[in-house]
Fold these 2 entries.
Entry 1:
Amino acid sequence: MKERGIKQMKTIWTVKGTHCNACKMLIEDVCSETKGVTSSTLDFKSGKLVIEHNANADLKALKKEIEKVGAYKVSE
Ligand SMILES: [Cu+2]
């Protein structure tokens, strides 16, 4: 959800354990359900996850959530 007037930030993580498009969709879905996250793109081949968000985003919780939905390991 985009909130007007709130500064946007970009965070890049590496997610280990992603191997197909289903992983990509699952993880992007988890990101999109996180408050304060405006967009996310995961390249499942490299595991590079680009998250655009604002200061309201709880990235700690997001990281936990990603590791909970599959055999993934997030490194910052
Ligand atoms: Cu997969």
Entry 2:
Amino acid sequence: MKIGSLFFSALLYLTNVQAEDCVYSHSDVGTLFSDVQEQADIQPVGVMVRVIGGKYCMGDIADNGEPDEKPVHLEQVSDFWLARYEVTRGQFRKFAASTGYVSDAERVDSTEAGCLTVDPEKWTFKYREEYFWDAPGFKQADTHPVVCISYEDALAFISWTKQETGLPFRLPTEAEWEYVARAGTQSIYPWGELASESCDSANVADQSAWPGYSKSPFGRIACNDGYSFTAPVGQYEVNPHGVFDISGNVWEWTSDCWAKSYLPDKKQEDCGLRVFRGSSWMNSEKSLRAANRSKNGPTDRLNTVGFRLALEQIPVGSDKYEAESP
Ligand SMILES: [Ca+2]
Ligand SMILES: [Ca+2]
């Protein structure tokens, strides 16, 4: 963060944000999907969409969340580019094949090799040595989002995309992620106030969840999205900013360190924990909320967590991509 924007943010935190501050005009929110003019197909990353920045209220607006989602505060997001889809297993396969990359789940020297998965009988989580991105414990195709990926694995993939394209790809920040997920809304969920209305927009723990799910402490949402585990990317309604699966399917690593609150003076940032956002096929009401934050260590990996790429800007006149209209 630049010094100027840090000062600006501090002022906003100190201001007591009122409900009316969270009412947006269209120009505040930025250009929504109906206005999107720019997208770019950049191989091997895929389609990136341009997100027009704006200001919004970040955090637990509905006041039904966790302490780390408070206080609600104004955030200013600059224009940036975000991948239309979660990174797929096929994209990760191409990366692993061309670089010989060995993921954290596959490292033999790992104290806990494999991928963290749930025991469907006891609903306890444990690392299973045989599970990794190409064998996550359920059936996937290469069009599904890659899972069992640690934060460090995601950074390794990003390094490769930088080499392949010459463009400075990165993970989105939490503020960028929530800005895109909310898309101008202040409701509990991006689609409204009810989790049961999620199934057109997101792959969650729904009525089609696997049989072992009857013992889950998370519960199942009262609608049917058609997938027990991951779904191919892009199966549900597009978000107003032009991206798919921002909520649900798989959690997405962000570039931020987790902190106990959004207050700068109490932040006590612990970079031992990185934030991921958006909930997954295994989760339901609580974690699907737009304000929800989850976190894990940088080498931890679960079969519910993947990632999505962001990019500051595409250089004018870049020959790395073909600009397209949607
Ligand atoms: Ca589902
Ligand atoms: Ca997602």
